[in-house]
Specification:
With 187 residues, the chain is mainly alpha-helical. The chain contains 7 helices and 2 strands, in the order αβααβαααα.
Length: 187
Amino acid sequence: MIIVAIISFVIVQRLVEVFVAKRNEKKMKSLGAFEVGQSHYPFMLALHISFFISLIGEILIFNRQLSPLFIWLFILFLLTQGLRIWCLTSLGQYWNTKIIILPGANVVKKGPYLFFRHPNYLVVCIEILVLPLMFQAYFTAICFTLLNFAMLSVRIPLEEQALMEVTNYKEKFKKNISTHVAKDNHN
C-alpha cells in the first residue's frame, strides 16, 4: 500500500508541475521570453514517463518490496521534496520544465540558488535514484540515473549558454562559471 501511495503522490505532483509550468510558460512568453532546447524536450518527457513505467513494472514483475533502508531513503526523499518546493518557490514565475529564457531578466539568486546553480536538477537526480531504491528496483535506479545524466549533459549547457547570452547570469554566477571554465580548460 505504501508503494502505491508514494508513487501516486509523485505522479500527481508531476502532473501539477506540468500545469504550473504551462501557466508560467504562457506568462513568460507574454513578457517576451523564448524557449531553448525544444529538440531535446520530447526525449526528456519520454525519459520521465519511461522512468515511472519502468519503476512500476519492475516492482510488479519482480515483486519488489520495501528496502531494508526504506526509512532512511524515505527521509532523504522527504528532504528532497522540501528542496523541490524551495526551488519552485524561489524561482516563482521563472520555474519551468522547459528552458524558457526572458531576455534582460535578472537571474534568481536566492533560496537554494544562493548556494549552487542548478538545485532543481539535483532534486531530479536524487529522486530518480532514491525512489526506486526505496522499493529495491535496482535496474530502474541505475538505468534511469545514467539516462538522466546523459540528458542533463545536453540540457544544462544549453540553458547556461542561453542565460549567459541574454541575462545577467554571467555576473550573478561569475565565480562558479570562472571556476568551471578554468577546470574545463585544464582537462
